[in-house]
Amino acid sequence: MHGIAHGAATVPAAATSFAGRIVAWQRAHGRHDLPWQRTRDPYRLWLAEIMLQQTQVATVRPYYERFLARFPDVPTLAAASEEEVLTLWAGLGYYRRARNLHAAARAVVAEHGGQFPRSVDALAALPGIGRSTAAAIAAFAWDVVAPILDGNVKRVLARHAAVEAVAGSAAAERTLWRLAGERLPQSSADMVAYTQGSMDLGATVCTRGAPDCARCPVADDCVARATGRSAELPRARTRPALTERRGRFLLLTHGADVAMVKRPGQGVWGALWCLPELPLDASDAEIDAIAARFGARALGARQTLADVRHRFTHFQLTFATERIACARREPHAAEPGVLWLALDAAAEAAVPKPIAQLLRRGAADETSAS
Ligand code: SF4
């Protein structure tokens, strides 16, 4: 390997290849106890990869175990209702992942006879599976030699080779994919350790805030380290300020029951159960009309609950909630897509996290009042 030139600094080549050092380090010091490391079943590997997107390992673990207990294989997941899949996903966030997971399971059954395809391209054609996730599944399941490029790997490569392009830009993506492709191991027998090691290095050593270069297996020829720039790289993009949105919801109660509505499949909290949303300037007549959809009449006392703030990827939502007790209602909701649920059961259903928290508080109030 040649030295890497960076401005005035030339970093000496290391004695063994980048991949060789990562593989040896992973075998000695990497993570070995994650539940999805004990399998070569592409279904389990795929599930873990999807759950781990934008989500910490500690958060994923219980969801992963619960999900597999209910859906142990692709046909079981494909045969389930979307409702049930979303219920098991509730609280993990980024619900499009769950809808894509379900759609991909159905595609594997319908188009591939229930077996995951072994090529990276065919995997990447399934809903919700990008090029990097496809490569990780193929490497872990079948030792396929293909590069991954998740957030951890991007950070390591951007520092190790001092990539100057701004993170997330097309130029950075092109350079990082090229670097990832060039550094692959020669032998497919090393792919599991290399792929896992690349992830582990970014997650545990070359971390975002404080890279621990003294413990790093590729420190010898790391340009960022040699030039004192590990804190600067990768170059962050300037993010536009989060836009602020306001919302208003209706917590319509009857005894210990709450009125819930199913949201449309697309958009924010798509296909989840939620409280009915109110226009910000909804009049009493509009609130009465919504209550009528639930067969509710004779509205009782109204109470405005404290504002709740919830952060999405691109905006910040602050919502107010009007709690209104119904003196009486029909036994069943009046139309499809709306229903009455016991407050504590609603909090455990396929509902968005801030709504579940609000419902749990409502259930606690009910308990303390009774
Ligand atoms: S030497 Fe430091 S900056 Fe370079 S890859 Fe290793 S941990 Fe990251």
Overall description:
43% of the residues lie in helices and 17% in strands. It is an alpha+beta fold. The chain has 2 domains: 4-226, Endonuclease III, domain 1, CATH 1.10.340.30; 243-369, Nucleoside Triphosphate Pyrophosphohydrolase (Alpha-Beta Complex), CATH 3.90.79.10. The strands form 2 sheets. Strands 3, 4, 5, 6, 7 and 8 form a 6-stranded mixed beta sheet that branches. Strand 1 (4-6) and strand 2 (9-11) form a beta hairpin. Helix 1 (18-29) crosses helix 11 and helix 2 (42-52) packs across helix 3 (57-70). The longest helix is centred in the N-terminal third of the chain and has 17 residues, at 96-112. It binds iron/sulfur cluster. Residues 156, 159-160, 205-206, 211, 213, 216, 218-219, 222, 224-225, 230 line the site of iron/sulfur cluster.
Write the layout of secondary structure elements.
Blueprint (H helix, E strand, L loop, with lengths): L3 E3 L2 E3 L6 H12 L12 H11 L4 H14 L3 H6 L2 H8 L6 H17 L7 H5 L6 H12 L8 H10 L9 H13 L8 H14 L18 H4 L16 E12 L2 E6 L10 E2 L9 H10 L2 E16 L3 E15 L8 E5 H6 L4 H17 L1
Parallel strand pairs: 3-7
Antiparallel strand pairs: 1-2, 3-4, 4-5, 4-8, 6-7
The structure holds iron/sulfur cluster.
Iron/sulfur cluster binds next to helix 9 and helix 12.
